[in-house]
Design goal:
The chain has about 200 residues and is α+β, with helices and mostly antiparallel strands. It has helices at about 30-35, 55-65, 115-130, 190-200, and strands at about 70-75, 80-90, 95-105, 105-115, 135-140, 150-155, 160-165, 180-185. It has a four-stranded antiparallel β-sheet with strand order 1-2-3-4. Strands 5-6-7-8 form a four-stranded antiparallel β-sheet. The longest helix is centred in the middle third of the chain and has 13 residues, at about 115-130. Bound molecules: zinc ion (2 copies). One zinc ion binds near residues 33, 37 and 49.
């Protein structure tokens, strides 16, 4: 039986990277990463190294932009929040039934709503034009006022912000439904992917 090689950082045996034990200064690769590469970041948040496990997880999440069930996904800069739209039905009038979902700080809220056809088409044009330089905005809202509002704003410094409101018509047993109104800074790279997947849609 092989003699166990013990990680000098966490004290547990190194199995997967056993052959690289010396290379990683007698640590797990992950322990090595946290010790020398993750710098001042908290272990529970991504660092600037693309090999950081957190960044790999978020890359996989980002890939889900290509998931055909979502017509549009806009991720936050820290990639912990996402606002998504899924088109459920498009009527001959051009009106759209859609589901809007926000995942923010681990909380997910979802609303089914309708959007007027002409509003939707204007939104698509201004959404795609967000790629162009200069301050711009793209705004979308549901036919029922306040059920779903989404406002993507590009500032003159190039930063982008998404603000949203989602409101349930009514909750269980006629109780008032939830209402969330918040926003986040958009991840620019993820946003370009969002436009790409939107155009493919
Ligand atoms: Zn370790
Ligand atoms: Zn890291």
């Amino acid at each position: 039986m092989q003699e166990p090689k013990i990680c000098i950082r966490c004290g547990n045996p190194v199995r997967v990277s056993r052959d690289k034990y010396e290379f990683y200064d007698r640590m797990h690769w992950l322990c090595y990463h946290l010790e020398f590469e993750h710098s001042e970041y908290d272990p529970d948040e991504p660092c600037e190294d693309p090999n950081c496990p957190w960044n790999r997880i978020y890359d996989i999440k980002r890939m889900s932009l290509w998931d055909p069930i979502w017509s549009l996904s806009v991720y936050s800069q820290d990639r912990r929040s996402v606002f998504r739209l899924r088109i459920r039905e498009e009527y001959p009038s051009g009106d759209i039934d859609m589901t809007a979902v926000v995942e923010d700080m681990g909380i997910q809220k979802e609303v089914d709503c309708s959007v007027e056809g002409s509003y939707w088409r204007d939104f698509i044009v201004s959404f795609i034009e967000l790629q162009k330089s200069g301050p711009r905005r793209a705004v979308l809202g549901s036919i029922s006022p306040g059920m779903m509002e989404m406002n993507i704003e590009k500032l003159s410094n190039g930063q982008m912000v998404l603000r949203y409101t989602l409101q349930e018509e009514s909750g269980l047993n006629g109780k008032p439904g939830f209402s969330v109104s918040s926003g986040f800074q958009i991840d620019p790279a993820g946003f370009l992917l969002a436009i790409k997947s939107f155009l493919d849609f």
